[in-house]
């Protein structure tokens, strides 16, 4: 497959266009999660790693259809959620209304948040950082809106490192084939996959080893890395996901903002 390089502006537009088109299918996926074991498992994992407060001020960056935001708001926390795509925000608002979750939604870029310094106790995110054209700058911005001793908690994976690693590409291919064989009714669209590969090829984090990169980036932003779990997917994925994503395991990073002297 021949993949062309794109400009930064072109990549950002491509990412937004992709997720706008995926908003309906991704929303259905999130709703299914809210009706599965994942709802309680995710809630437990997040709150176990959050600052100890009865009512947290939480920011969900790249909320998508709102799974994290809705889940945490229903636990009584003060939740704000942002996304840069209109399609995802529309779905998130619809879903929050259905579930009776009180969430403040804003359209915003992960690199430029419309909030004052030190506004939140916790910033959460899932499968977002890999999408970013300037991920280190985004993490610095997330740190800015955190209160002292506040935490960043996010989940991601080396989703497209196989585009730059032949051994990993073969492992990825075998995992896809095995998942397709065992779950023939749950095969992802190849067209969607190819389109995302073209976009991912031009994103900076597709070609670096994570979470090593993340630990260094967070520390450079004045954060202390408290916990890294390189196999968090074992706790939050169904069996079919564990098979399909065996070569791209999901990791968790929890970091705390240094208190200013």
Q: What is the CATH level 1 assignment?
A: Alpha Beta
Distance between the termini: 53 Å
Low-confidence runs (pLDDT<50, min 5 residues)?
A: 1-9
State the order of secondary-structure elements, H for helix, E for strand.
HHEHEHEEHEHHHEHHE
CATH homologous group name: Vaccinia Virus protein VP39
Q: What is the name of the CATH architecture?
A: 3-Layer(aba) Sandwich
Output the number of helix runs.
Answer: 10
Query: What helical percentage do the residues reach?
Result: 40-55%
SSE blueprint:
Blueprint: H1 8-34, H2 38-48, E1 57-61, H3 67-73, E2 78-83, H4 86-99, E3 103-107, E4 120-126, H5 135-144, E5 146-156, H6 166-182, H7 190-200, H8 212-220, E6 223-229, H9 233-236, H10 239-244, E7 251-257
Parallel strand pairs: 1-2, 1-4, 2-3, 4-5
Antiparallel strand pairs: 5-7, 6-7
